[in-house]
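Reply to dn_fold:

You asked what the input looked like. This is it:
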Amino acid sequence: MKSHLLALCLLLYLSASAQNQVRPIRVSCIGNSITYGTGLKQPELHSYPTQLQQLLGPGYEVGRFGKPGATLLRRAFRPYFDQVEFRQAMDFHGDIAIIHLGINDTDPRAWPNYRDEFIPDYCALIDSVRKSNPKCRVIIARLTPLSDRHHRFLSGTRDWHREIQQAIEQVAERKGCELISFYEPMHHRPELFPDAIHPNREGYGLMARIVYQAITGDFGGLQLPQYYGSDMVLPHKREFQIKGIANAGDKVTVRIEPQGGKQKGQRLHARAGKDGRWTVTVSPLATGGPYTLTASTSLQEITLTNILAGELWLCSGQSNMEFQLRQCSTGQVDIPQSANPNIRLLNLEARWRTDNVEWTASALDSINHLLYFTDPGWHTCSPRTAPRFSAIGYYFARELQDSLQCPVGIINNAVGGSPAEAWIDRWTLEYQFPEILRDWTRNDFIQDWVRGRAEKNMGKEHAPLQRHPYQPCYLHEASIRLLSELPISGVIWYQGESNAHNKDAHERLFPLLVKSWRKTWNNDHLPFYYVQLSSLNRPSWPWFRDSQRRLLAQIPHSGMAVSSDVGNPSDVHPRNKRPVAHRLAALALHNDYGYTQVVPSGPLFRSIEVKGKEAWVHFDYADGLQTSDGQAPRTFEVAEHPGEFHPAQAEIIGNQVRLTSKEVKHPRFVRYAWQPYTEANLVNGANMPASTFISTDGE
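and this is what came back:
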């Protein structure tokens, strides 16, 4: 009898304990093949819901309800509503629902016919989820990317994918759901999508991390932008924003205080959103410093010291911008005198140079993870730090600092041999120049040397989706998108040698690059000053230089520095960089800092005027027109018919040039400095050289 009573008591105790146990939080992952884990050898082990379970731990129970091929649209070819996975998800009664549907709705059998039903159908799905558990926390996701390699990318899928993303955002707002995005964190990682649709194991892991952060609010704690650091330069005399990361809901305090406490500082507050992002707006800082910047939450604090307030510029491009001060013809004189506490340097150097060698498997893996650049931190300019910095960047910063009498920060992010397309963001190329993305190592838009060197670096047995710094979009994704967190004043750019084989492609690419960067920095007026290619014995260069000149009219807030007078007939890397930097600085001082007395450019061709047998050439920036050596102007040619040019006798009269030729009785066209390596000698009163040019009908 006693034993029966004891057993009954034990049974009652176990029953009560079971009732008091907290059951795991249920997470239902609703979707298509990407939720299922298609493309994996073992989706039950490595799909994003399975990896999410591992991240969340035993306090959660994750259900995987992905149906390959499923559409959100109920009248399309495989509606999720009609699948057994839908019923299983409803019976699961999830406390949290993660919905990722819409990829298959980009099919021409779906979106073109039923697009008007997408939002109502999505709302109905959310209603079903909430009916199964009225307390369910519903999180819907912006779609994973579709690669340009997708066979329907240009026939509609690209554009329908974008329209569906917009519809998903409207659904989130209408139904009061949380919205996360698989798109932005994965769009710059095309190698994660072997078949252009489904992620690989690493990609599914990234999806799991995104969902984990959304569920838990754990974003890794307080973080400032990557390239913020002690000794940096922040803007003066204008507002700017600091954007960082913290755990969701954390209160963030940012203090910017003059060191020594002589002036009043700023104390700014923000709260991290559900996406972990926080932003503060800094009021204009007084020029100089030094300042201390402190960011803190209740648990963490980050302190940066010796910060100055002044001007901040980025120098970028390929090897002639990368060309170091120690290599420069004037470097040995200027390096010992380079100590300047009011110039600060951030030098992002490549970890692996694009020399004619095969890279190791470890290097290739790092490159795939966008770990191509060093993270050196900011440094005060000195004989120790200046020698490895960009010569043009150094001389540009030195001239600005001397003229403006304020601190100058200069960032060097240049890669030898890099083509323009590598510096443009993926979205821009997908919509504006998608053909350059396709099969890029066999793509004639891309220079043969560029493709060949990339193939050499990647090796004969490289993976099909191996990435390289010369690949379209790569350098934007590896550095520019991160540098955009720095509030720069403008850009100086020296690049084009790796696009000079095809001026017509470059005429499309370069305006896209400038537009891309201005969008990246959210500044439509960001100054962008570039160097016209120098003199070198390569036959395409006169046409390319003239194309660069003509691009000035297409790109507002831009300027061009001529460098043909400091070229070398056989060396693509002229060693005299100081004049080039001076010309870039003149553009910035004149256009952006009110130094109207500074001449910003050499003579630029404006028009020709025919008077009988004479052609008179008119220029902008022609005050004090002269020659650099006191001799008659050289390398002018005239023609009556296109392509039939003859040498001309040139005479400077005032600020114009008069041309005649015995071979041409009725001149209609003029060209100047039309040699790959030119000894042209026309300059203005500021000793700025004239640009290569060729006239056309009507000019």
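Residues 124 and 587 are 58 Å apart (CA to CA).
Hope that clears it up.
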